Structures are given as structure tokens and as C-alpha cells.
Amino acid sequence: MLLGWLREHQQARGTKEGCNEGDCGACSVVLARKQGEHIDYQPVNACIFPLANLDGTAIFSVEDFGNRQALHPIQQAVVDEHGSQCGFCTPGFIASMVAGQLGKVEHSAEVQIAGNLCRCTGYGGLIRAFEGQRNTPQPAAFRAKLDAAESWIKASDAGGFECHGTTGSIYAPSTLKDLASLRSVHPDALIVAGATDVGLWMTKGLKQPPKLILTTYVHELHAVEQTAEHFCFGAAVPYSQVGPTLLQDYPEARDWFERLGSVQVRASGTLGGNIANGSPIGDGPPLMIALGASLRLRKGETLREVALEDYFIAYGKQDLAEDEFVEAVLVPRRQPGQRLMVEKVSRRIDQDITAVLAAFSETSVGLRLAFGGMAATPKLAKTVMASRQASDIHKDFEPLSDLRASKAYRLRVAENLLRAFLEPDASNPSQEAAQ
Ligand SMILES: Cc1cc2nc3c(=O)[nH]c(=O)nc-3n(C[C@H](O)[C@H](O)[C@H](O)COP(=O)(O)OP(=O)(O)OC[C@H]3O[C@@H](n4cnc5c(N)ncnc54)[C@H](O)[C@@H]3O)c2cc1C
Ligand code: FES
Ligand code: FES
User: Fold this and answer.
1) Ligand 2 centroid vs 28 CA: distance in angstroms?
2) Ligand approaching nearest to the C-alpha of 44
3) Which residue has the least CA distance to atom 2 on ligand 3?
4) How many helices (H) and strands (E) does the chain have?
5) Which of 127, 222, 288, 408 is deepest in the core (most CB within 10 A)?
6) In the chain, what are the domains?
7) Which among 302, 291, 297 is positioned nearest to 335, based on CA atoms?
């Protein structure tokens, strides 16, 4: 992972290791990469960022931003606002905030630093530091590094390599054709996109998959197409790009987007990976099912399209052949008069695992009521869709009780959310329902 390489091989020990699973942000660094004709700046969690995903990018860590004699303006503002005590979390916060400046983000400081955990100081000073400096130009020395990196990133042609070592092989194709033929030759290889799931299998599960196929450099898998009927997201498009496109048509999904992981997780993680891993508590699938999305799957030269609700067969079992892969996710555009509601219910607001995710859509064609966290797979509430009776939720689902929520709580909150959508005039606003 990038963090080990920075600390142990580059002696760049300013970047810290806290959780080693993408949760605390202590390891945040700034990633610069090509996005169309532009350079996109995002913070990423170095602890779960595979080095092999870095070709054609530049990384800036806390060592790059400023120095003891001339702190970066964000660093100086954190000092002035008393935003640091032990300092362990500070380099990660600074990286997230510098990435926010470079990316010219418009969202709040709270959203920008939601993926960074401070264990001793609190967030007030950090929020003020970012808000006060979000539009400050970069200092000359750092700007020079950025300019140099931007030129060679624009000129670079990333991917199209293989690495073979003593413990395994990594294949990093740059075209769809090469990806398809590698998948046919190595159906046993693990596909890796942003590695926000796979990275944890390695750092926490201590798995060492012998063969990896990266989708990171496959140009076609990075395409975002808009037609009158669909948004088509290539399977390797990160959430940070999916979100703003989707929000053009579905602004009701803003809260869903801003609470999916953190800025760091959304910069690496992909909608394709979220769907492909088949988790019953992934936040992407219920919304996509409610919107009537479908998947384009590829096996060699053969393509097929599957409605997303049919893709999830049972816990851990998806309608995906061994040598097949997800090529794209097709999301219908908004219909005139369409209603949409999406609510994530979890124990805390930021970066938490979902207890129940409810996504409801109604168009002239019909009603689609999808849930995550209520069954072994993301699923439509078909009985309620037919009856429009929220209390019929008990006929559709028999959820589990676990650490996040009991069965009774899940059923109750799901029923309340359904009431908020199906009976919008009744005195049961969704905010109340979600409590
Ligand atoms: C701190 C943290 C917070 C998180 N918060 C959330 C959250 O709030 N909500 C949520 O839903 N998830 C969350 N996640 C989980 C994760 O970020 C998402 O599931 C993400 O979308 C996975 O995408 P990825 O590109 O990183 O997938 P990867 O980790 O690269 O891959 C995931 C799985 O998909 C498979 N895969 C990837 N691409 C393809 C393809 N094209 N074809 C076939 N198979 C493929 C891989 O083989 C693997 O099985 C979080 C993760 C972390 C570390
Ligand atoms: S060490 Fe906690 S996110 Fe990387
Ligand atoms: S300053 Fe100590 S953890 Fe944030």
C-alpha cells in the first residue's frame, strides 16, 4: 500500500498510520490525476491505496506543503485556531484541507473533513481553519511542485503493465479489449478497482491474492456518458465523479452521496465495485435499484444487460460468471414528475455502516421501493409496491438483528420511511421517521 511505501521506502514519515482500514484519515495524502482534460485533486487514504494504482498520478504528502520556516497557510491557520494538540491526526487533516483548496470544493468544511478523526482536540478550530483559507492561493514553492506534476501527468500514458513477483502477479491493462482477454485467461484473478473493499481484505484480512487485475487504467471503464435516456458510468469511475453527475438529475440524493464513506473513500471507491461486491449493506445498490438501473456485463466479446435487482441472487451470490466483469452501470435519467426519496439510517451521520438504506422512486410508469440492510441482498419491497400499504413491509422482509440495529428497529424505521413517502401529507415527515 502507498502508506508503507511512503513511510518505509521514501522516509516520508509525516503521514501517519492510525486504523489501517480507511476510517480515520491519519494517512491522508493528496492525489493528483488526469480527469479528461483537467487535473483532479482529491485526498485519499494511503493505508488502503495500492501502489499499483498510482501510475500516471502524483502524490503530495505533508512534507510537500510547507516547512518549519514557512508553514502552508492551512497549517498556519490550524496553529492560529488551536486545531491541534498531540498532532497525530494533523498531517491527515492538512492533506484533506489542501486537497479541498486545490479541488475548489464548494461543500462545507464538515463534509471535507468527515473522513478525518481527531481523538483529542475537537473539530471547531479545524473547521474554522479550512473555512478561513479555502480560497487562499498555494504558496509559491508548493505551486511550483504542482505545476511540474501537472505537466507530466498530462503527458503521461498510464497503465498497460504487468508486475510479477514472488507472491503473485498484477495485471494493469489500459484497454477494454485487454481487460476482457486477461479476464478470460485468468478467471481466478481478483479484480481491483478503487480497493476500498479489497484493500481491507489485505490490510485487515491479511489476504494475499496471488493474481490481481486492475481496472484503474482501462480508458473505456472511466467513461461517463449522458444521453436523453441514461447516465452510463464506466465501472471504474470513482464516486467523486459519479455523485456530481447523478445529482444533476437527482438532487435529493445529496445526503446519500455526502454520507457514503468520506471524501477519501469516494475519491477511490467506485460504484462498479460497490455493486460488484454484492454487499447487502452497500449504499449504492438500493438507490440504483429504485432508479431502475441496469448493469452492462462483459465476457470476452459478449455483452449482456441485467436489471440491477436481478443481479443480486443470494448473500454472496451475484449473477456474474467467473470470467465476466462489470463494464458499466446505466442509470435512467429523471422522468417528468418523478418523486425520489433516499434515506440512510445509521448510528452516526458521518462515515458509518448503514443499518437501513431506503430509496423510493415514483414515476408515471410506477413505484419502486428499494431497501438495503433489510435482507441478504439489496431488494425491492414488492408487496408494498403492489399494495401501497407501509405495514406490508413485514411481508417483504425478515431482517436480522445485529450490532447496528435490531430486527424490530429495522422493520419499524422502514415502515415509517415508507409512510413518509406513500403518505406525504400525513403528519410523519421523514426526519421524524429516521429518528
Ligand atoms: C472507511 C470506509 C468507509 C466506507 N463507507 C461506505 C459507505 O458508507 N457505503 C458503502 O456502500 N460502502 C462503503 N465503503 C465500502 C466501499 O468503499 C464501497 O463498497 C466501494 O464502492 C467499493 O468500490 P471499490 O472501487 O473500492 O471496489 P474494490 O475494493 O476495488 O472491489 C470491490 C469488489 O468488487 C469487485 N469488482 C470491482 N470492480 C469490478 C468490475 N468492474 N467487475 C467485477 N467485479 C469488480 C472486486 O473484485 C471486489 O470483489 C466504505 C469503505 C471504507 C474503507
Ligand atoms: S490509517 Fe486510518 S485511514 Fe488510513
Ligand atoms: S490532535 Fe491529537 S488526535 Fe487530533
Assistant:
1) 7
2) 2
3) 86
4) 19, 18
5) 288
6) 2-155 (3.10.20.30), 161-218 (3.30.43.10), 223-433 (3.30.465.10)
7) 291
Looking up cell 473505456 gives 220
The pLDDT tens digits of the residues spanning 87-143 come to: 999 999 999 999 999 999 999 999 999 999 999 999 999 999 999 999 999 999 999
- Residues constituting the chain: 435
Q: Which residue has the cell 443480486?
A: 312
Q: What pLDDT does 426 receive? A: 73
DSSP 76-123: HHHHHTT--SS-SSHHHHHHHHHHHHHTT--S-HHHHTTT---SSS-S
Phi-psi region of 190 (alpha: psi -120 to 50; beta: other; left: phi over 0): beta
Q: Exposed, middle or buried, 180 (CB in 10 Å: 0-12/13-18/19+)?
A: buried
Residue 5, phi then psi, degrees to nearest 5: -65, -45
Residue 425: predicted pLDDT? 79
Atom of ligand 2 at shortest distance to CA of 24?
2
Reduced to 3 states (helix: H, G, I; strand: E, B; else coil), residue 377 is coil
User: To test the ligand 1 pocket, which listed residue (23, 192, 196, 233) has its Cβ within 8 A of the most ligand atoms?
Assistant: 196
Q: Which residues of the chain have pLDDT under 70?
A: 427-435
Cell of 58: 502524483
**pTM of the entire predicted model:** 0.96
pLDDT at residue 434, rounded to an integer: 47
In this prediction, residue 36 carries a pLDDT of 86
Q: Is 271 helix (H, G, I), strand (E, B) or coil?
A: helix
At 428 the pLDDT is 52
